[in-house]
Amino acid sequence: MDAPLHTATPKLALAYGYLALSMALVGSYVALSKPLAAVFPVLLLAWLRFGIGVLAMPHWLNKPADEPPLSVHTKWLLFLESFLGNFLFTLCMISGVKLTTAVSAGVIMAAIPAAVAVLSWAFLRERVLPRVWAGVACAVLGIGLLSVANTDSNLGDRGAQGSARPGACRTWSAESENGTQRGQFLQDSQAHGQAMDQEDCEKWTAPAHLPPAISKFDRLLGNLLLLAAVFCEASYAVIGKKLTGSLGPRRITAIINLWGFTLTLPFGLWLAWGFDFASVSTEIWLLLVFYALAACMWSVWLWMKGLKSVPASQAGVFTVMLPVSAALVGVTVLGERLGGIQLLAFSAALAGVVLATWPSGRSATR
Question: Coil, helix or strand for 211?
């Protein structure tokens, strides 16, 4: 329906808060979930995540008295929401990142706000105002700058002139893919480290950080997979908006999580058969529980709650909070550095959110 935006400012402000908090939470658990990916295979991790979600919210599956029965069309939308937004997005994203460069991944994923706006216009017939398009452009610019800054920072850390940070040698040892060489390297590094300061230790280990060369075909395939991930995420926002017209946020959250569990069940059971669960530490299990609740329950409920009152094209701009919050967690929790380009990226991202959500007296089609 058509409603003046300025008359609903308090309600919209709360909805904007839900959307921003949802994406900030996603960025936070993405930044903190790296240890999980080092312990569990990707599809096993996804299955465990959805399984914990199933155990946490069975009561959310119950149909409220004021909701209509699920139609065939709604059931298909719920399946597509989970298949595209959870299952396929995860596979395309992880596979794409492995095959291409970090800067390419960041720049391509920066297109999410624009993709959401385009799909909202095409499928939901939302009227996207010029200031919303300007907000989308700022969000894209912010994410692109952030990806370039992060890549430059990583290259700087790998170089011989990189500045030292505590635990650099231990970090390399934990992330190395070659277990035998890793153990020998750690012993040698510790022996040399006694005679060198931390900066010299990082310089000495720097060549090990260099990534393997990526072929043109792999890079092209990786970029195409990331582009597919962009439209999977955009579809998640658009389909979610459609679902909030007939279902409550809690029930949507529970049903798409159940579909995610079902889709990953065969892969999870296969990988779990030979996995040594006894070797997983208590800290990793606790982190897994937080990751599962944040990914399957809290962030999804917040996103659907916000979508009930905000057009999908505007909501898409809030995806900029994902890389921003991930970067902030890296700075405040993981001890990473914040440079001038990151500050410029944050400013562009904030400008995009302000432009897209600025109150207006004009009507907006919902």
Answer: coil
